[in-house]
Specification:
The structure is a single chain. By secondary structure, this protein is mostly helical. The chain has 2 domains: 12-157, de novo design (two linked rop proteins) (Up-down Bundle); 200-334, no CATH class. It has helices at residues 24-65, 76-102, 107-132, 139-154, 159-217, 219-249, 251-257, 262-273, 275-281, 296-305, 314-366.
Length: 374
């Protein structure tokens, strides 16, 4: 493409057939390659024009270095000032040429670097130029070459770079869409997995509740319940018998009477605080050495009846507790999974909403590049 073709104000959009969203990646890749080629061609065209400028500048430097102002009639101090500023100006021009000759970067960065280099040159060399032109008019030719180059440079159509930026944005949206689709797919899989686990646990709970129901309907359990109720009544009666006997014995009065006898005081305190435990430990009924013998029959009866505490059928109670604990645990698990499903549904809704927004944006942005999606 010729250099001057890049100075057209409008670019033609290539009409393309509609493509499916599944092919969007390939279409974006093609468009990117096309824009990158255009940008590279623009850079090479500018480089060609720049080489022309450099050639002209070098030619002028050769002429300027041959300039001799010794024969001029101006004062020596003016000649010295001109020579010094001419030398400085030539140095600036040579610095610009050296920088431009070595410059090589990506198209957009290259063009911006050229613009900045010339702008910086004009600023830094302005004073030297003005002082040197007091006696040397040839300097104006360099400024003319640079001015013509810049005039053409400013007319360049840099639309390709804004399109590249827009395309990068489109690529980012496409990447975001791919990520959103992957996330929604993973969330859907997670939801299905949780639902399967829920169904499995519901069946397990249903089976467990049926087994528990059958267990509680069994003769063994009913007999156990009856025995437990009878035992509870017996325990209640036993506790009442202990209370009545303690009232008859009057431990408070005995503790006052035998407070100076350490052994008897200890036995009385133990019975008063833990009657049944003390009675079980008191194998020889040492308490009868302190209280009247008429209470012996009551003590023996209570000791015999207290054996009911050891007659609990632990296996039945443990089995019942095991059923209850398993059902409780399954209810807790189902509650947590219901919560997880709610959170997953919300997450899926958010992701799919984002996915839809990206699809709309991609279709809209794609029109900039003549891309129409089905």
């Amino acid at each position: 493409m010729a250099f001057w073709d890049w100075f057209k104000s409008e670019s033609k959009k290539e009409e393309k057939e509609k493509v499916s969203l599944g092919e969007i990646g390939n279409e974006i890749k093609k468009e990117r390659e096309s824009l990158e080629r255009q940008a590279l061609e623009l850079k090479e065209s500018l480089r060609s024009r720049l080489n022309e400028l450099i050639s002209n500048l070098k030619s002028q430097i050769t002429e300027l270095k041959a300039v001799n102002i010794e024969g001029r009639k101006e004062e020596e101090r003016i000649k010295i000032l001109v020579r010094q500023n001419l030398k400085a100006y030539i140095s600036h021009v040579e610095g610009l040429i050296g920088y431009l000759e070595k410059l090589d970067d990506k198209p957009q960065e290259y063009i911006l670097a050229v613009s900045r280099a010339i702008e910086n040159f004009n600023k830094s060399s302005k004073m030297n130029f003005e002082k040197a032109t007091i006696l040397i008019g040839k300097l104006e030719k360099i400024r003319e070459f640079i001015r013509d180059f810049l005039a053409n440079f400013k007319q360049m159509n840099l639309e390709v770079f804004s399109k590249i930026k827009k395309l990068e944005n489109l690529i980012n949206m496409k990447d975001g869409l791919d990520k959103a689709k992957e996330t929604s797919s993973q969330v859907k899989i997670s939801i299905e997995n949780i639902k399967r686990e829920v169904e499995k646990e519901k069946l397990e709970k249903e089976k467990l509740e049926d087994n528990f129901k059958n267990f509680k309907a069994s003769l063994e359990y009913k007999k156990h319940i009856e025995e437990r109720e009878n035992r509870d009544l017996a325990i209640s009666k036993l506790n009442q018998d202990v209370f009545n006997l303690k009232e008859k014995i009057d431990f408070r009065d005995l503790l006052k009477r035998f407070h100076s006898d350490e052994k008897k005081s200890r036995i009385l305190r133990n019975y008063n605080e833990k009657f049944l435990g003390s009675l079980e430990e008191d194998k020889d009924l040492e308490i009868l050495k302190i209280i009247p013998l008429r209470f012996m029959e009551d003590l023996e009866k209570i000791r015999e009846n207290s054996k009911i505490f050891q007659e609990v059928k632990e296996d039945i109670e443990n089995k019942k507790a095991e059923f209850e604990e398993k059902i409780k645990s399954l209810n807790f698990e189902l509650l947590n999974k219901d919560k997880d499903l709610g959170e997953m549904d919300k997450k899926l809704e958010r992701v799919m909403e984002k996915e839809n927004e990206l699809l709309i944006s991609i279709k809209s942005e794609g029109k900039e590049f003549g891309l129409e999606f089905e």
